[in-house]
Specification:
heterodimer; A: alpha/beta; Peroxisomal Thiolase, Chain A, domain 1; 2 domains; ten-stranded mixed beta sheet; B: mainly alpha; Non-ribosomal Peptide Synthetase Peptidyl Carrier Protein, Chain A; 5 helices; 68% helix; 0% strand; globular
Amino acid sequence: MRRVVVTGIGVLSALGLNREQFFEGLCAGRSGIAPITAPDCDGLRFPNAAEVKGFGAQNYFEPKAADMLDRFAQFAVVAAREAVAQSGIEWTEERRESCAIVTGSCVGGQSTEDQGFWDLYKLGKPRMHPMSIPKTMANAGASAISLEFGITGPAFTISTACSSSAHAIGLAFQMVRSGMTEVAITGGSEAPFSFGCLKAWEALRVVSPTVCRPFSKDRDGMILGEGAAMLVIESLEHAQARGGKPLAEIAGFGMSSDAHHITQPSAEGAAKAMRLALKDAGVAPQQVGYVNAHGTGTTANDITETAALRLAFGEHANRLAISSTKSMHGHTLGAAGAIEAAATVLAVGSGILPPTIHFRERDPECDLDCIPNVAREVKVECAMSNSFAFGGLNAVLVLRRAV
Amino acid sequence: MNTEEITARILGIIAETQRKDPAQVTIDSTFEELGIDSMDGVNIVFALENEFDINVPDDEVKKLRSVREMVDGVIRLVEMKAAS
């Protein structure tokens, strides 16, 4: 089977407006969590979030183009531009015709929808904005990327809650590996900060009133985040033929569903996805040196994920370094899988493993090495990125250092 | 509204939200006996907040394990509201 490599990464996150700021923040153990600044979001039980700061649509789009896109779709385009620029790919007619675009989003442009419904229900306005539907649709990001580069190949969006963009990357990986296409732009974006969406999260009682402290005994929930990450992936031969530089190889992908509970995670379901990803990659547990954990910072996830890692890795779990970068960039829902896959590619490529910050106290039920608070220099051969969604849908990617 | 009335309404709300025969739900029932998991607990508290016009903090919800703890918690919040 063909090998698939990542040759470009673009990231917008609470740690900054580009890939360099993102990885510099991760290595420095910098927190992107701060008081919520989105308008009309006062009076929530949680004051903090991991918002993208200083993003002005006017810095990236002509005013009319910006008006056509919800914030989440703007994020998708900006991240795709950065990934494409790094890959150095030139858009020949053939590449435009065959390149795939696979994105993930959980809530789509729901802040656009929220605004329209507010006008309608609360202010009694008689009509919605005509762009409400095309701005709200979850595939708006994929469509905007296609328009941006004139790409006419297969393009679609996957929505599996917090696994959305991990599933998206996994599918794009399979499409390139099978020879269906040579190149794909894949990842995810999310911008969930509207009052209605935040109130819905508040009702679920899983959001921290303080910060995100994954695996720490005193953890008290997740922190919502926004952002995007896009990857340019291509077959190794295609990259080599055009002089593209592989940043890492996508070695395998595994997925499963828990059939257990709509919100409570299952160790067995998560472990199954990890085992399948390792098998798909042809990688033994001992070859994996780092896991970018799902690590939401909720009581249930972190205990269950620890148990799942022990099930999947056996004795090797004791020598495994894991971390949750959500402690820095928040839980970006449908963008999480892509942002964390980007973090994992950068970690494998640089030999610097990002930490789990805000860590204060060991939890006997989360007894793995979670790289507390300070990044670590370790060259690892392979790494894993875990994504587990509400609804029990699991997606796991295995990455290998480029040679 | 006295303690007995509040208790009766809470038992009724638990039975209603969990689609259970009201006879099954008593002040001495544990969540385990009633098959109530953490998500069910959050759903019941949502109904109780609406019924009694109170706000239950997240960390209180996480500690709940029985009907009696739920009743005691609601009575405390209702009394606090009346006193304020």
